[in-house]
Amino acid sequence: MRVFHYASQPSWMGLLAAALLGTSTVQAIELDVEDGDSIRKAAKLVATNMMSYYTGMNPGDNPGNLPDPYYWWEAGAMFNSLIDYWFYTGDDTWNDITIQGLLWQAGENKAFMPANQSKTEGNDDQVFWAFAAMTAAERNFPNPPEGQPQWLEMAQAVFNTQAPRWDTSSCGGGLRWQIFTWNNGYNYKNTISTGGFFNLASRLAKYTNNQTYQDWAEKAWDWTAEVGFMTPEYRFLDGASDLTECKPINQIEWTYNAGVYLLGAANMYNLTEEPKWKERTEKIINASSVFFSHDPPNVMYERACETVNTCMVDQRSFKGYLSRWMAQTAQMAPFAYDTIMKRLKASAQAAAKTCTGGINKNVCGLKWTEQKWDKTKDFGQQMAALEVIQANLITRVAAPVTKDDGGTSKGNPNAGTKPEKKIPPGLDYDITSGDRAGAGILTVLFMIGLGGSTGWLIWE
Hints:
Structural class: mainly alpha
Radius of gyration: 20 Å
Keywords: Glycoprotein, Glycosidase, Hydrolase, Membrane, Signal, Transmembrane, Transmembrane helix
CATH class: Mainly Alpha
Helix content: 40-55%
Mean pLDDT: 89
Strand content: under 5%
Low-confidence stretches: 2-26, 419-460
CATH topology: Glycosyltransferase
Organism: Penicillium polonicum
EC number: 3.2.1.101
Number of helices: 14
Shape: globular
CATH architecture: Alpha/alpha barrel
Strand order of the largest sheet: 1-2
Number of domains: 1
InterPro entries: 6-hairpin_glycosidase_sf (IPR008928), Glyco_hydro_76 (IPR005198), Mannan-1_6-alpha_mannosidase (IPR014480)
Pfam family, one: Glyco_hydro_76
């Protein structure tokens, strides 16, 4: 996952496709969060706008990729949102595109490590694709043809490639941001990478009832707390350099870090019914109130960048993941339902009010708290609006399935672990001293740049 991007416009073909949808698109999006039909209609419009950016289904293009400036991981997040869309609405418009993209990007070892992404892929990037596969298994999304990688199998493959990367050589454990030493940020251990691993492990534990996944989820949670990436108040900080044993910690707080741990904790509570996981889930929900405005009340915002207009391309999508995981938490931890739905309803209504931009007057803005279009266009903010709107259908759908309760996706606990394809911690080739020095320099430069852009951040 990267933080240095520039804004993009939809492709002209995408805009044309949206225009051809008919008169229903030539008006602002109206949303009644108490009316299922209204939510589905709004979700359809926003999803259509989101898909105007995607070109992977075009002849000669690469299935599963978004055009520049969007990085590969965000396409995985998009497919997850489309699986959610299908599950919430019953509309299968984009199912074939979703299946095609996920299978195309699965890679030779089925673990979402295609060779052409080695210059950009980090642990967090990889796990966002695993989230899509895991969601497909949990939602009984149509299975791939026999002989192709299966949803549960792909999620297990990602877990099996990430667990060996757990790195105790510094900071007492955790996952590095980057997989490969040549990538910027290799010496940065960040919350979203370990949090993504925790989230995936908890969901695999719930789906398979396998103790190994549960043990790893416990380990990831404990390390996050011990290293200080989670504060005693259950607020999640961004990460730190392992060159200094993860001190000092970057104080930036992002919505998706809270969300990724929230759903993981909720799944662990649902699986174990242990009081500690209920308490942890409740405390994350309470702490995440910092991401919701007071005026208007309960509307989500990206506090690290929205108020100072510094949100980069990746960050424009982050609110969508907190929305997604809050909705799923409402199912896994019913005691959190009232607080979650209050926030989702207010945020969805506010997000819909920003969808008045563009040619057809339904392109969604970034700043939901303004409740009007802020004259910005971006793929990520379309996806975020889609997620928060369709999340309000969570009360109308079934809970995630498991292998013992209706799940049809076939798994393979050894996926991704063929001897000739094993990936040791860090890299699959000999790491030289030059590699390490180069990675260290890049990490220092990265941290300087990050500190210069958002390092002033908010600590209340």
